[in-house]
């Protein structure tokens, strides 16, 4: 059977090629956009593989405006959208758009068919309602000390590493930051630190490494995935390629870890031990009270939260540290305001970190300038129209104020491009400048698209990331801990560029995913 797998899947691939070639063109073809130089790849190589990420996308936005068409793989038409009016329509709870089937298939296989990343409609609203108490301001405020302990563990690790060196050490911080945020999210949100769980941490580390790589084959595979019948997916699961095997290993490790943890919590409750106010116990309370949430639904959130709550936050911290190392004056400002706030003793806990203006400006600017998820795919589930804020002149010369979308057509929520709009972020939107958040340069308007500073980092509408406040707090705490204890600098002849993987990762000298920094104790 195994030797027949390539033939079977190859036949499916040829079928997809034939279908894509002969299917009728859609309405997006009349919307201006860049020329495609490849029938197979369309504009996907320029969009996804070029480093630094955005080199082509930002130029396309300058040339064609905040709404334009691009070619996907195998002649597929897609719409790139960063126009605020159009984004409102797409993100609103109208039932017109959903996540793409490719992403949903991956979400189902990796996280489970009850994961909050997979379910939609009433089921999604129900799970959100059950999970929301675990992400309330009061609950997050109670997790400050837990996050501080994780950050302190990292700084102690760096201090120990530097003790044996007489000069500033140069080492890669990428994996260190990921380990810290993984401990932070599992301990603070789920009451369980995975640091000593070798099976889970190994599976997760392999997932991060695999997710940090993207190839031409992966881009085509992503396009073909949609057309694979269920039996072909079952074949893939029996004889998975390396990348798919990594995803499945993480899924199995997550399910086993969740099983063990849930059993221990249920047993503790039987013994009368007071439960923590973490995510799993909040959901267990709901299960115990009315069985509105099943144990399988609870288990399916474990892998979801570890990936969604760790990877993007870790890489946001990595990019913030890169900018701090690049700009020593930023480090000085954060140290000064930290000491001043500490000496005044005006605030503590969550409010203490919120009271540091330059730190928060740096966090916001990092999330704006480095969009961890550069774009998010949506598919129309029925015929609809997308309104735009300014008329678009089509290739045929017609001026339109709304774009017709047919059922099954794809739209890209262009998060990175939205974060570079001069109309929102100022004339220097293409530069990294935290001061824009302190001098009223940003124009947020009356309607914010996202929950935090009008950024789309955490999306918006009903699919807004539940843990956005937790992610911001974790960034604040880790950055404060490291900046007040270490001097950060960039090694000579070190070129760091952003590349698109699962999220935006640093590529060192056009080679590996890593961020080497010069680090010395203060």
UniProtKB/TrEMBL annotation:
Residue ranges of coiled coil: none
Name assigned to this protein: Cytochrome P450
Keywords: Heme, Iron, Membrane, Metal-binding, Monooxygenase, Oxidoreductase, Transmembrane, Transmembrane helix
Pathway participation: Secondary metabolite biosynthesis; terpenoid biosynthesis
GO MF term (any one): oxidoreductase activity, acting on paired donors, with incorporation or reduction of molecular oxygen
InterPro entries, A to Z: Cyt_P450, Cyt_P450_E_grp-I, Cyt_P450_sf, Cytochrome_P450_monoxygenase
Record flagged with keyword Mitochondrion: no
Family listed: Belongs to the cytochrome P450 family.
Location within or outside the cell: Membrane
Residues the entry annotates as binding heme: 465
Cofactor(s) this protein requires: heme
Cellular component terms (Gene Ontology): membrane
């Amino acid at each position: 059977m195994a030797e027949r797998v390539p033939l079977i899947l190859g036949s499916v691939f040829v079928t997809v090629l034939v279908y894509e070639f002969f299917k009728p063109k859609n309405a997006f073809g009349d919307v201006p956009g860049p020329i495609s130089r490849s029938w197979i790849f369309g504009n996907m190589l320029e969009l996804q593989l070029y480093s630094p990420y955005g080199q082509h996308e930002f130029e396309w936005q300058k040339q064609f405006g905040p709404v334009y068409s691009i070619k996907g793989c195998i002649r597929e038409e897609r719409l790139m959208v960063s126009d605020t009016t159009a984004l409102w329509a797409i993100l609103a709870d109208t039932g017109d758009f959903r996540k793409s089937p490719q992403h949903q298939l991956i979400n189902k296989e990796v996280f489970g068919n009850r994961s909050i990343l997979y379910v939609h409609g009433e089921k999604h609203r129900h799970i959100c309602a059950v999970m929301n108490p675990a992400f309330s301001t009061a609950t997050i405020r109670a997790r400050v000390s837990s996050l501080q302990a994780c950050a302190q563990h990292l700084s102690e690790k760096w201090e120990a590493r530097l003790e044996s060196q007489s000069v500033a050490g140069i080492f890669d911080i990428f994996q260190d930051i990921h380990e810290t945020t993984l401990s932070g999210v599992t301990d603070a949100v789920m009451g369980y630190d995975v640091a000593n769980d070798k099976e889970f941490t190994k599976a997760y580390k392999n997932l991060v490494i695999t997710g940090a790589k993207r190839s031409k084959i992966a881009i085509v595979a992503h396009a073909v995935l949609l057309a694979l019948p269920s039996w072909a997916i079952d074949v893939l699961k029996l004889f998975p390629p390396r990348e798919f095997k990594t995803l499945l290993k993480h899924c199995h490790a997550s399910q086993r870890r969740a099983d063990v943890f849930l059993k221990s919590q249920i047993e503790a409750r039987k013994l009368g031990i007071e439960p923590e106010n973490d995510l799993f116990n909040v959901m267990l309370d709901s299960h115990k009270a009315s069985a509105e949430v099943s144990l399988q639904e609870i288990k399916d959130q474990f892998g979801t939260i570890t990936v969604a709550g760790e990877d993007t936050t870790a890489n946001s911290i990595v990019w913030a540290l890169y900018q701090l190392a690049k700009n020593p004056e930023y480090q000085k400002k954060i140290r000064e305001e930290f000491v001043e706030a500490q000496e005044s003793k005006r605030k503590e806990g969550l409010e203490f970190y919120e009271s540091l203006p330059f730190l928060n400006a740096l966090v916001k600017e990092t999330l704006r300038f480095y969009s961890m998820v550069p774009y998010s795919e949506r598919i129309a589930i029925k015929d609809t129209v997308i309104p735009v804020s300014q008329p678009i002149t089509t290739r045929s010369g017609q001026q339109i104020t709304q774009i017709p979308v047919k059922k099954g057509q794809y739209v890209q929520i262009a998060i990175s491009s939205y974060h570079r709009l001069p109309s929102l972020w100022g004339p220097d939107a293409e530069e990294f400048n935290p001061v824009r958040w302190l001098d009223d340069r940003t124009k947020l308007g009356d309607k914010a698209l996202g929950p935090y500073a009008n950024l789309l980092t955490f999306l918006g509408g009903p699919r807004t990331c539940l843990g956005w406040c937790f992610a911001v707090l974790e960034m604040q705490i880790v950055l404060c801990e490291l900046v007040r204890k270490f001097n950060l600098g960039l090694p000579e002849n070190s070129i760091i560029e952003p590349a698109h993987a699962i999220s935006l990762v640093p590529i060192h000298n056009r080679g590996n995913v890593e961020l080497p920094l010069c680090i010395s104790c203060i």
